[in-house]
Amino acid sequence: MPVKTRLTREQIAARAALELPDGAYVNLGWGIPNLIADHLPPGITVYFHSENGILGMGRRAKAGEEDFDLVDAMKVPVTLVQGASFFHQADAHLMTRGGHLDVAVLGGFQVSEKGDLANWKIPGAKGSGGIGGAMDIAAGAKALIVCMEHTTKEGAPKIVRECTYPLTGLACVDTIVTDLAVIDVRDRGLVLREVAPGWSAAEVQELTGAKVAVPARVPEMRLS
Amino acid sequence: MKQKVYKDIDAIVADVPDGARIMFGGFGGAGFPNNLIQALARRGTKDIVAISNNCGTHDGELGLLFKLDRIRHVIASFPGPHATHFQERFAAKTVGLELVPQGILCERMRAAAAGLLGFYSPVGVGTEVAAGKEERLIDGRRCILEMPIHADFAFIKAQKADELGNLTYRLAAQNFNPIMAMAAKTTMVEVDEIVPVGSIDPESVMTPAIFVHRIVQAKGVRYAG
Hints:
The complex is a heterodimer.
Chain A: H1 9-17, E1 25-28, E2 47-50, E3 54-60, E4 78-86, H2 89-97, E5 103-107, E6 110-112, E7 117-118, H3 134-140, E8 144-147, E9 159-160, E10 175-177, E11 181-186, E12 189-195, H4 201-206, E13 212-213
Parallel strand pairs in A: 1-2, 1-5, 5-8, 6-9, 8-10, 12-13
Antiparallel strand pairs in A: 2-3, 3-4, 6-7, 10-11, 11-12
Chain B: E1 5-6, H1 9-12, E2 21-24, H2 34-43, E3 48-51, H3 63-67, E4 71-76, H4 84-91, E5 96-99, H5 102-114, E6 119-121, E7 135-138, E8 141-146, E9 151-162, E10 167-168, H6 177-183, E11 184-195, E12 214-217
Parallel strand pairs in B: 1-12, 2-3, 2-9, 3-4, 4-5, 9-11, 11-12
Antiparallel strand pairs in B: 6-8, 7-8, 9-10
Helix pairs in contact in B: 5-6
């Protein structure tokens, strides 16, 4: 049997972009979420928030137009959209923690069936690890989407009954977008919303470490 | 009027003693008080407890003070993969680390500035950062008690100061600087430009002069990393 195709990181980002409402204030985390800005559907305007004190962050700066006092959370020089504003780091996190952002999108190492998120440290990894803004965002986002591959490089499920990696937040994730599926976290557990083209609900369940409820109709993931 | 403007950047840090608790502004390469950090390195102050979002970029920013073994403990949110001098010393257990969620780092400093003795927060409940902290339910929500972070000194960077110490910042380079300015006992700022009192519009002042104690102009000696 040929190996089935999984979505690319760009395609995961493109699918997650469809979750952003027009006019929303949105924070994008490191990793796949950072690719989302390039995949907004036409006609949708979203205001991107950066934890270092920017609302209305635009595209990355081109060579020659960089200003190193205007960088995103990954230290990359960026531009502004019309209507942008600056503020200090405490107010930037007042926005994340205080429930002022409409949507936050984070990367993940593990998500549990209760919506617990682990995304800041891999056990046994070298170095100190770093939390950054992830815990504030997880605690306060009105809607939290996690973008990640469905399994680790070794094939282990990243959606699990209980997280075994150090936690970022409890019961904070609303939706998981992976290279195989879109899954919602509900009070009673995980619910499959969409599957990647060519994949069945049973095949997705097989690669998921927690029970996923399957509604009568599960469409293919929309990518645009 | 007390003179706040220093001509000599080495004089501004001359009384920073061993063991001082110091806040350092800056994020993502922007708004770092690199010239003050270099002056402190020349001064030789050691056993520093540093409060900073990250732990330097190789030799740059706080990296210099880790490289010279001047910092014994750091309170940080994201030490960073390029904080090579810190990471080496952290692995060798010669530098202590308290990891704090970034927004809570801000709020603990702001609590110190505001004369508050602590606050309850839902951030990090059930995670490593909640270890040893008092937990309670408020409105049915689990939260933990966070304590203020005080400091003897804040080292910050602004774009412009008037001679009284009113400050403005440029673009996203304010980041932690205005918060640290309010939280420390003595705040010293390096700026690109010092202007006469009255030349910054009162409504444009971003850090009022009451929070600023020492000013030095340090344009052109910026760390390029």
